[in-house]
Structures are given as structure tokens and as C-alpha cells.
Amino acid sequence: MIYLIFWLFTWPQLSYRIFSSRGNEKMTSLRGEIMTAELAGIVFDELGPSKVINIYSPKIGLRAIVVIDNTALGPSVGGVRVSPSVNAIEVARLARTMTMKSSIAGLPHGGGKAGIIADSRDPKKELYFREFAKQIKDLLEYIPGPDMGSDERCMGWIYEEIRRATGLPEHMGGLPLDKLGATGFGLSACAEISCSYAGIRLQGARVAIQGFGSVGRAAAKFLSEKGAIIVAASDTKGTIHNPDGLDLKCLIETKDSTGSVINCKKGTAKTTEDIFSVDCDILIPAATPDVIHKDNVDDIKARLILEGANIPATKEAEEILHKKGIIAVPDFIANAGGVIMAAMEYAKKTEKEAFKAITTRIKANTGLILERSKTEAALPRNVAEEIAKERVLKAMR
Questions:
Q1: Exactly one of 101, 113, 255, 389 is catalytic; which is it?
Q2: Which DSSP string corresponds to 328-376?
Q3: Can you give the pTM of this predicted structure?
Q4: Catalytic residue at 294?
Q5: 9: pLDDT confidence band, cut at 50, 70 and 90?
């Protein structure tokens, strides 16, 4: 028995539908009330979201959410996030970020996102992904990709079921985003342009990375190759810090073998939150949303923040940083490497063509946004959103 619970919204008209394979009125009513409450915090505007879809399978315990934000520029591309705490509001915010990201990068795609409400280490993970794929088979305007808690193997499971996914394993003809480090590579390209606006030389710049997962370690690798010095890194267990620089090889090997960077012997272990107060030039939040907020923003000593995660800072925090003269390059500019490579894969481009596209587009957009921000004394995010939004509205018209 599988329940599919759909919230279908087409702005400005609003409709609510619940479909059930069996007429269990009591369960439908209860679940409808819960999900209506979850929707209360989603912001609807002239761009979308156009669809908010909940998937529920009591037989295997799958609960998932898909949000299609906007498809005016093309079918939406967006990752599948796996987390016990992911919810409709978070997925909707991430879907909007993907709309902005594809638009500003000049890609023929719209924005969408999905969330599977589960632990990424759940032994039923493959079962969840295959069932999820079957449920979105006819949702042709959404192209899944990897995100926090998922990887190319997960995309392979989806592709085997519905023949529609990006970030596939190499043996399936994909450009594996995590293995190639697409997002981290894009962050390093962004740093090359943004450092000059922050009065920093990338050669010798001290970098702190919050979240040493696939994005964080790739960013560390590519930035180190450009002469930057990684002075701190963190994960869910804590922060490792060495003002003279951490050994990247040690960091990676320690993370892989022990599960946490804090076990690296060549630094001092601190709390997870201490990463935000480390004395550094560049701070890269590369994990979960809203980690930079009004309660810790004043602790930040960096002069440049490159948003490696999606929505890692609240709008209030970004405004405070701007007033203090600290540049925060928005997520959909700085971390667009992943979606650019995904779009290149979908268009059957080569790895070389994908990396060239990442370099060209991210450097151009970083310069465009920061120059205009400097000239107009405007928040970088506001500038970037204005440009991206106008492109989407033009396509809608």
C-alpha cells in the first residue's frame, strides 16, 4: 500500500490534493493537517514554487519531498538531500537557489530540489532511492542530482529505474561531481576573482572550511594548489586548527579512516562552532543551511566568505557582514560548479568542456556581481538575485 500525497501549487491559484491507494479517511485527514502546517513557511511569489510534492510509502518507510520551483528556462535540475531533519520549507528554499543558480550561470534549466527524510547511513538507503525514483518517473520537469547525503551511486540507482539523473558514476557515462570535485573547483575559481575585491592575495591566504565533506575537501585541494593555506577544518565532531597550516593529506586520510578531522595529530582540536571564530582570510561554509546567523556572525574574522553550501547564511547575517565590509559571495554564484557540470553531463559534454564551462561562467559572474555590488554599495546577494530573477521573468514572459 503506497500513499502519494501531492501539494500542487500553480501561482496565483492554489490547490490541495491528496491521493490514496485506499480510502483511509482518518489517516488522510491527519497527514493532510501535518503537511499543511509544514507548508505554512514556504514563500510563494511570481517565480514559484510551481509544485510541492510529498511522497509517502508506509510499506518501506519512505518519506520524501520534491519541490519544482520554476521551469521557464528549462527542466529543473537539483540534488536529492538525505537527512532526518529535511523538510518542505528547506527543500523549497533550496529549489529557489537552484532556479537562481541555473539562471545566473546561463544554463537551459530551471530549479528544483528533493529531500528524502532518512539517515544517509540507513541500510535501506538503496531501497528508498529506488522507490523514490519510481514515484518521480512521470515528473519529467525534474532531473535529480547528488546532494548532501547522496552521491553518484545513488544517482545510478535512480537512473537504473527511470533513466533520468545527473552526477552518474563513470561506468554509466556520467561526470561524477564528487569524485571530480566540481563544486570545490568552482569555489577556487570564484576565489581567484573575489580575493582582489576583499583585498586578499590568494597565494598565502589562510582558509577555514566548515564541513569537510565532498565539497569542503575538494575546495581545500584546489585552493591549496593555488597557494592558499588551510588553517582550520570542521565536521560534526569538531574543528581542527593549526595557524601555521594543516597537512591536507593528513586531513583527508584522518577523515576517511576515523570519521573526523579532529583526530588529525597535526592540529589542535576545538568545538564545531569554533570554526567561525578562527583567525583566517577566507571562510568557506560547506555543509548545512543557516550555520552563519545573528548569534555568531560577529565572531567571524575572515574578510571573504565563499558560500560552498546552499543557503549557509541567513539574510540577516549577510547584511551584518556587508555593513562590516566582509564580502560574502552568494551560494548560487560561488558553488555553481556542481550544477554547471551536471548540465554539461546532461548535454553530453566532456569532462574538459565541463571544467572549462565552470571556470568561465563562475569567474565572469563573480566579477559581474562584485563589481556592481562595489559600485552600487549593494549586498552581493541582492545584486545577483536581481539579475537572475530578471532572466527568469523574461523567459516566463
A1: 113
A2: EE-HHHHTTHHHHHHHHHHTT--HHHHHHHHHHHHHHHHHHHHHHHHHH
A3: 0.87
A4: no
A5: very low
